[in-house]
Task: structure prediction
Amino acid sequence: MTFLHSTTSGPISRRLKDEADTVIIGGGVVGTGLTYCLAKAGQKDVVLLEKTELTAGSTWHAAGLTTYYSPGINVKKVQWDSFKVFREVERETGQEVGFHGPGTIRLATSPERVDEFRYQMQRQGWNDAPQWLLTPEEVHEMHPLLNMDKILMGLHNPGDGHIDPYSLTQANAIGARMHGAEIYQQAGVTGMSMRSDGSWDVDTQYGTCTIHAQRVVNAAGFWAHELGRLCGLELPLVTVQHMYVVTGPIAEIKARKTELPVIRDLEEPSYYARQERDGLIIGVYERAELMKMQNRWVSEGVAPGFGKELFESDLDRISDHLEAAMEMIPAVRNADIARDVCGPITATPNHLPLIGPYMAPGLRNYWLAAGVYGGVIQSGGLGKYLTHWIMNGEPPYDLSELDPNRFSESWCNRNYVATKCRESFGFNNVIIWPKDERPAGRPTTRVSGIYQTLLDKGAEMGFHSGWEQPNWFAKEGDTPGYRPSFRRTNWFHPVGRECELVLSKAGIIDLTPFGKFEVSGPDAARVLDYLFANDLPKVGRACISHMLTPSGGVYAEMTVTRLGEDRFFLVTGSGSELHDLRWIEDHVWKGGYDVAIANVTDDMGALGIAGPRSRDVLAKLTSHDLSKKGFKFLSCQQLSLGGVRVRAVRISYTGELGWELYHAREDTARLYEAMMSAGQEFGLGDFGTYAMGSLRLEKGFRGWGAEMTVDNNPLEAGLGPFIKMNKHANFIGKQSLQQLQQEGLTRKLVCLTVEVEESGPDAEGNETIWHNGKVVGHTTSGAYGYHVQKSLALAYVPLHLAHPGTVVEVELLGSRRPATVQQGPLVQTHTARAQ
Result:
């Protein structure tokens, strides 16, 4: 059987390989970028299969924009690495990639956008890429064709620009083949089946020709959804139409000797404009109600033969965007439209790609590099990121916001995908606020039994992995609703009231969104001892424990409760449910452990109660001994509370006396009502996640995704008490920690009190820290501490600055605010106070 093998000069006949270590499906810029990175890193037997020809799909018609800018901290690293990969592949292959680097200027034409630029600057300083603010005069000097009437500020990324996607893809292919990879065109995948050992048989469109692979990577662009269905997967992807126009020559541009910077005019109707020879490419992102999705491709599949085709353009749909461009760049008014392009781009509900190993029942070694809405600029960095993960068994840095399992099939249905994708497209250039909330597609099926009750009591909900959970509660006299701001806003005083409630009386919080797993079987203790760095608790006890990566990063933090000798209950945060479960299941499978794992997240409700009167509240509902001796800290007991069977664990993320109460999800309303009735005389009330976040900062508690990520080791994070280096089990990451102990730490997590104005802003996390005019670190979390009445932040700083009393500066909205390193937590936990 004959297959077509890719070369730069045209296909040649060649038989498909029988075996491969990794099969990558999709020959766009993402798939070829990964193929190049894997082959260059030394992986043998890398094969890429392309349905038609390289660049078909979204790559060939892309505008090719490249930028260091991203509002997401971790995605900045992806795009930084992409630039490096682009330079490497061009240098190594001699294939020019058509890169132009005139820089990008984002335009601020409103005070709120000026604040956003300053907010993004405070998050950029500790990252690699240069970025700075421009005055209107500097904007005009760099781009003299702009109408300056409305421009208040520019945000400039030097080195940004654009690249030729076709040439880049060809360079990737040449480089991949130089390092031993094989690329086959006209080799569409028609079937996939997993063997019992987790390897794959991949059938191609040539019928009987099958390639056997240790792993497969779905990088199939707008075919990725169909490819997933071959394995029974319903991936959260949809194809959207993206339009841009190419103008004819513009005299003012033709007269210039240097290329104009790329412009992004962010206010509605938004657009980008980059120079294309003597004219401009003007690309738009329509409002949610105007944008177009290829919904039929979801139900019926991609139109047969669609590869290097385009959709019919609709210039009326984007006329207001073009008018805005002509107002901002008056020279455009005299230009002709030489060409218009309306092509497909694949997107996820929040327009961030799906990157990494995908978990589904019985599925192994299936990886995703799909929904890469950023396409070209993220291709090289994602290739490098996935290469490290595939070859080393762990990600090189935290990129959990791109986790492929963050949209679980248990709640993320097609309606949600379409509704959310429409919203995200329309929000392409909206202001990114701290604590950003977006309403489309909510609520999903993931609501607790008290959802409506809490709404009726003024709950302002946040969204966590499909769940609705109260952020805070608006009472009579408060200003309700979502009022985003870069400073303190309508929730500031209500959250203070909730903190006082927990500190002086008792508060109840809906914790149903927690990820909840039960692990049982003859090997349960053995595998958990290998996965977790802490000692396993005794029966009836619980502990905080961490799963580490082989290199010693903090992969996860969980509460581990031992229900029996071979039965455990694991609890994690809502945002890490499948992230953590995948890690556990993968190691159980690879190790051949005799263990059963049940994800009971959707079956169990959870309520938390905290505060000095919490014991009194529960005592009215049970005859069980709840005293300090009868129900010790970090112990677990089965109770009946108001007739509801409850698994009670004495622990609270607030650091106050408290319990987490796990129960059947259908009993949540009954339990809540019983507790509220019993707590009336003790002043029991509701509190939300914002108050819990403030209380945990005062106690110095670490948070996963902030203080604890794979980028941080537990020693610098101050997690030493939870890491048992002398435990018998040789837990994952132990050797790396031993090496770290020998080498010594270079930085440390500290608590800062920050001097801010009465209106804030307070730190949120990822702000740049300065000392003597130099960048020395970054914050990880921040909030106002209502008990200590100070603005707080946790931060990583060099060891020589980690001493109490040291003064550094935290950058907040363009101002460097004095911040003082504190000794330990500012408020002791209830347990410490009791001792």
